[in-house]
Amino acid sequence: RSLGIVGLGGATFPTHIKLRTNGKSNVHTLVINAAECEPYITCDDMLMRERADQVIKGIEIVQHLLGAEKCIIGIEDNKPQAANAMSVACTNKAMQVKVVPTLYPSGDARRLIHLLLDIEIPNDKRSTDVGIQVFNIATALAIYRYFEFGEPSIHRIVTMTGNVAKPQNFEVLFGTPLQSLIAAAGGAKADTTHYIMGGPMMGFDLPNEQVPITKAANCIIAAAPNLFPAPPPAMPCIRCVRCADACPVNLQPQELYWFSKADNFEKARDYHLFDCIECGCCSYVCPSDIPLVQYYRYAKSEIIAADKAKEAADLARERNDFRLARIEREKLERAQKHAERAQAGKSETR
């Protein structure tokens, strides 16, 4: 916690919380997420090929802290060199490398658990509720470097790719301006329109080249019209349910779309809106080119804002009720004191 180590798969969830067991860990299986399922991103692939021994030592530390009996490293089958390097490094260790099909979005924790262990995590539970904890491969390396060298989380490997002269991976200090990374990759080509942080499916457009590299920046893509053409105008939904067929978490995207569009947020919540991992599969297959994920993000943000407003209103009402109760109590106490003084005065007169 003090050295700032967080999940480096993109979510940046605080690592110390995932390792907090208080001596009562129920985790029996540690899953190492090395799937790296989105196109363009190769930072974890390069990490495993070049630093497999250090990664394995980091995994051993995590496994020891969690008290996990079993450890499985999931790697997609489009990374044969990384899988071979990791297999060699974990020889005679209490862990195994398992190669999974290259199938987006296998990098999602629940999808990877299903691929590796054939276990479905219920939508109202976390993986730790069934004894499984998931760590990203880069996080394991950061943990090793902390225990071995006392090194804080100050850098990570970043893929700089897309419309640049020399796409490659760099080890980058956090806070490095994006323009420095672009220059190291030989500069962006003239027709570059914008930059994406993350993969092409779940990434976000960056506002400019002056933004810093953060812990969540596993990949920067220089976008151009030939790589990322402008989306065509959205057409009406034809209820073809291709989105439902493509959804990896078995939701009803078309229903969520209608509820989100109509601001019927409670109904969207009832249809498990927050189970959506925003992978973009539904938007990708939609023949009407509807930006479905954008609607889901909008609905989620509105629900979260409403929940926060309700929480604040409930807190304000509770404070007001407490204030009114305090005023009433003080009023009764004053009345009682006046009555006691009056009674004492009568006694003295007699």
Strand order of the largest sheet: 6-5-9-7-8
Please compute the radius of gyration using only Cα atoms. Answer: 27 Å
What oligomeric arrangement do these chains adopt? single chain
How many individual β-strands? 9
State the distance separating the first and last CA atoms.
74 Å
Q: Counting H and I runs of at least 4 residues, what is the number of helices?
A: 12
Largest sheet: 5 strands, mixed
SSE run: HEHHEHEHEHEEHEEEHHHHH
Structural class: alpha/beta
Strand content: 5-15%
> How much is the average pLDDT?
92
**Dominant shape:** globular
Helix content: 40-55%
Poorly predicted regions are none
What would you note in describing this structure?
There is one protein chain. This protein is of the alpha/beta class and 350 residues long. It contains twelve helices and nine strands. The chain has helices at residues 15-18, 43-50, 52-66, 80-89, 109-117, 137-149, 178-184, 242-246, 253-261, 265-270, 281-285, 292-349; strands at residues 29-34, 70-76, 96-100, 132-136, 155-162, 168-173, 194-197, 204-205, 219-223. It has a five-stranded mixed sheet with strand order 6-5-9-7-8, covered by helices on one side. Strands 3-2-1-4 form a four-stranded parallel sheet, with helices on both faces. Strand 2, helix 4 (80-89) and strand 3 (96-100) form a beta-alpha-beta unit. Helix 2 (43-50) packs parallel to helix 4 (80-89), helix 3 (52-66) crosses helix 6 and helix 9 packs across helix 12. The mean pLDDT is 92.
List keywords for this structure.
single chain, 350 residues, alpha/beta, four-stranded parallel sheet, 12 helices, 43% helix
